[in-house]
Design a protein that fits this description.
With about 475 residues, this protein is an all-alpha fold. The protein is globular and about 60 Å long. The two termini are about 20 Å apart. The chain has helices spanning about 10, 75-105, 110-115, 120-150, 155-170, 175-205, 205-240, 240-260, 275-290, 290-320, 325-350, 355-380, 390-415, 420-440, 450-475, 475-480.
Length: about 475
């Protein structure tokens, strides 16, 4: 497994021509091999920085991410330009990763209203979430290999255009069935932003730096779950649920223009796959044959299922069972998102680099299990009739712990897959969204008057995530090789 202790430039200071990868520390390493150390594109030695300090280099065609102004070999104006470029790329990638929570969470306060407007049962309307989620999962399987073959930029722009069109049509859907269909198309197109954003991060970063960057993206994209329900709740004060899709259409248009103008290609032609469908399937089969990669992939997917069980059920639990208004629900949802962001920043700024990623991940999964068990005990009446406050507290702890689980599962899995970042990102996203799509309808299987199914799904998925982490990833076997370990 690649060293998780720093960036690629920290591990291999070998200048290259910028037209292809540099020397490989282990030429025979494959998807499942330890020691897959690949030199980044571009001149890794050009910055002449202190090799003890984590640095990141960008591929040809994209200026290097931010470096300290005092870095040797860079004049002041060049350092400032690098910082501006890195910040801009960070904001663009953050916007792309914010698209799924915007598509999901702005719509959440409107679920009861959609149920009444389209005269459909709650379980059917929850399928609009499932359809969007399933579309995002399946779309990634297509877009990921496409981005490995044709680069990141063209598939991303195509997906964004289709997303805008599908979202606009959602605002006009007259029946629940048509809404479900167009939400599926919306998810299929929106998958481009999710999978390519992760692939771009893998193009630019490695090791601990990648984990830290994922935490930074969580800060940016985490703003979306905070403001999305608030915006959705306020939109419902002046119009109906269709207005939410109008707002999402505007957001999609703005993000498409930003990507077109500012996000440059990060995968040089020399590194693109030239095979067709057979080659893409062979690559994915090789990735899935890596037991450790698969372990992180499934553990991350199950953790995401815990999160999505909350996303899918909380509008009915908080509003229908505990009698909160759409605005109160939006505030509680935003508070939980703040917890996730805060813990994600603690992960990136304080924990990563001091503790091994596996230790931080294991602790996060343990907290998720404990919070889910507490919610199950409260919703089944073990502690008596629980009110909104203790249930909201349990949900807050559960959501906050996601800030330790989500960035670290992605980082640990992608560290093994430099050779096929797009395909690996597609598998990570697809597994998460498909498992979440399965969990979504289960939370409403007993109707709208009980929160027990939500808590039960969360407990089962959380325990299964821990089991996959321990049995497949086997972190104790690699503890001695973790550069970020104690």
């Amino acid at each position: 497994m690649p060293d998780s202790g720093g960036s690629r430039s920290q591990r291999a200071h070998i200048p290259t021509s910028g037209t292809g990868p540099g020397a490989d520390a282990n030429p025979g390493a494959g998807p499942g091999a330890d020691g897959d150390l690949t030199v980044p594109h571009g001149d890794a030695g050009a910055l002449a920085v202190d090799p003890a300090a984590p640095q990141v280099t960008a591929p040809a065609g994209l200026p290097d991410p931010p470096v300290p102004a005092e870095a040797p070999g860079l004049p002041g104006p060049a350092a400032k330009a690098a910082r501006r470029t890195g910040l801009l790329v960070t904001l663009v990638l953050g916007g792309l990763t914010a698209l799924p929570p915007l598509s999901m969470d702005m719509y959440l306060p409107a679920l009861p209203a959609v149920t009444d407007s389209l005269s459909a049962p709650a379980a059917t309307i929850q399928l609009t979430l499932t359809a969007c989620l399933a579309g995002m999962a399946l779309g990634q399987l297509v877009v990921g290999p496409m981005s490995d073959r044709w680069g990141r930029r063209k598939p991303l722009l195509l997906g964004m255009v289709v997303y805008v069109l599908a979202t606009a049509i959602c605002a006009l859907a007259p029946t629940a069935e048509l809404l479900i269909g167009f939400r599926l198309l919306q998810g299929l197109a929106g998958a481009a932003g999710i999978v390519i954003a992760r692939a771009v991060v893998r193009d630019l970063y490695d090791g601990v730096e990648m984990a830290r960057f994922f935490s930074t993206l969580m800060l940016i994209s985490g703003v979306a779950p905070i403001i999305a329900p608030l915006i959705g709740g306020q939109v419902l004060r002046v119009t109906d649920w269709r207005g939410i899709f109008v707002v999402l259409t505007g957001v999609g248009i703005a993000l498409t223009l930003v990507v077109w103008k500012w996000l440059h290609e990060t995968l040089p032609p020399a590194d693109r796959h030239t095979g067709g469908v057979t080659d893409a399937l062979r690559t994915m089969r090789g990735l899935l044959a890596d037991r450790v990669f698969t372990g992180y992939m499934i553990a991350g997917g199950l953790a995401f299922a815990v999160l999505f069980a909350y996303i899918s059920a909380s509008p009915f639990v908080v509003q229908e069972i505990y009698g909160a208004s759409p605005q109160t629900f939006s505030l509680l949802f935003g508070l939980n998102s703040i917890g996730l962001i805060a813990v994600g920043q603690i992960n990136g700024k304080l924990l990563v680099g001091r503790f091994s990623l596996d230790k931080v991940l294991g602790f996060g999964l343990a907290v998720i299990v404990l919070a889910a068990v507490a919610l199950l005990l409260m919703t089944t009446g073990v502690f008596g009739e629980a009110g909104l406050v203790p249930v909201a507290a349990g949900l807050f702890v559960l959501m906050s712990a996601m800030g330790l689980a989500m960035p670290n599962t992605n980082a640990q899995a992608l560290m093994r897959t430099k050779h096929a970042a797009g395909s690996a990102s597609a598998l990570l996203g697809t597994s998460s969204f498909l498992i979440g799509a399965v969990a979504s309808p289960l939370v409403g299987i007993a109707g709208e008057d009980t929160a027990v199914p939500m808590a039960l799904v969360q407990v089962v998925c959380a325990v299964a995530a821990v089991a996959c982490f321990l049995l497949l990833c086997r972190p104790w076997q690699r503890a001695g090789r973790e550069a970020g370990g104690l």
